[in-house]
Amino acid sequence: MGLSTTCTGLRVLDLSENIAGPMACMVLADLGADVIKVERPGTGEATRSLPPRWAGESTVFLGFNRNKRSVALDITAPEGRAAMLRIGRECDVVVESFRPGVAERLGLDFAAFAAQNPSVVHCAISAFGTGPIGHDRAGYDALVQAFTGILEMTGEPDGGPCRAAPSIIDTTTGMWAALAILAALRRAETEPGPQRLEITLLDSGLFLMCHQIMGYLGTGEFPGRLGSAAPSAAPYQVWATADRPIMIATSTERTYRRLCEVLGCPELGYDPRFATMPDRLAHREELAALLGAHLLTRSAEQWLAELWAAGVPAGPVHDLAAALADPLTLERGLIAPAEPGRIPGLQQLRLPIDTDHDAPLRQPPALGEHTAEVLAEIGYLPEAIEALIGGRLEEVATT
Questions:
Q1: pLDDT digits 0-9 by tens, 101-153
Q2: Which single residue of 257, 278, 327, 338 could bond 269 by disulfide (Cβ 3.0 to 4.6 Å)?
């Protein structure tokens, strides 16, 4: 059985925006769930407006919304809310990312969906949670990177704080949300009843710093900005070569000594200044200068060939184009063509867990593409569907 059938039969209502919630729902969709994404009529989900664009559509939206169906509903109107709750009645999971308090004001909170479906798994995603302090604080990936100390620890020693370029908080929050939902569904097999999950960007950001936090709790110290270097291992950083930089990462005595042998300075492997990892950390800059002088004598390609042959962990410092074109990337097959659709030649990144490569890659939906289809499935008459889609809400009636 392939991964794409793991969640077959599961129906998910996606009320989330941006990255974390949509990613969690996309994971479930890739695993076989029927994910219904509800969006605002006219503008749609917030990321639809973000650049850059592929064939006129936001690549941010395209990156996190495949394998879903899109329904356009005005949830600020009573008729739109009623339709939303009716869809929710047929769903096993509801995922939302409203600011804390907004769902309650709209009548679309956990209690509202639980009243429709007493076995629903409701996952609320926010930046800082629903507590007295976090409740009213808005947040995005970069703000949480700043709050948790990630920015402060990232960058060159003589520079200022730097944001990690990928949306690491958003994407890891999406993964935690998907995992929490799957765990809740398993728990429901023996503990019936509605379940409310609260997933926050703050928790995800702090957990990304787990070993730095453990170090601080144990010692009262935390690493400062080290550029490409690591706080607990050396030599472990980027070095210049005769033509372009490479990354070298040693974490054992054996790999350190092999590195010294490859570079033609085996005596450094037994130099008492660098005999142990604590010694090398204490003399990090001195060691880096000595090794760096050797690395400047040959090209990156020459050094990497010898380092790899000796089993020393090392690699090129790619830009994105080079990373995607590298034969190792191509060997992994992570990027694959999406199924044919309205965007010619669209490609997608399969889930890193999809080892069988069997999950479908249906193109992300156009705004409201499946509105009529989904409303018909839950019992709306054709006239009511037409009225909802056309905004003539006073005419809406259901069976």
A1: 999 999 999 999 999 999 999 999 999 999 999 998 889 999 999 999 999 99
A2: 257
Catalytic residue among 14, 170, 203, 354: 170
C-alpha 233/C-alpha 250 separation (Å) is: 7
246-316 sits in which CATH class? Answer: alpha beta
Q: What is the pLDDT of residues 12-39, one digit of tens each?
A: 999 999 999 999 999 999 999 999 999 9
Is 3-208+334-395 CATH 3.40.50.10540? Answer: yes
Strand duo 246-249 + 93-96: pairing: unpaired
Q: How much is the pTM?
A: 0.93
Which residues lie closer than 8 Å to 279 by C-beta, 6 or more apart? 272, 273
C-alpha closest to that of 14 among 131, 130, 124, 116? 124
Q: Which is it for strands 11-15 and 236-239: parallel, antiparallel or unpaired? A: unpaired
My answer on whether omega of the bond before 118 falls inside 30° of 0, hence cis, is no
* DSSP symbol at 1: -
Active site residue 30: no
Helix or strand holding residue 37 (H, E): strand 34-39
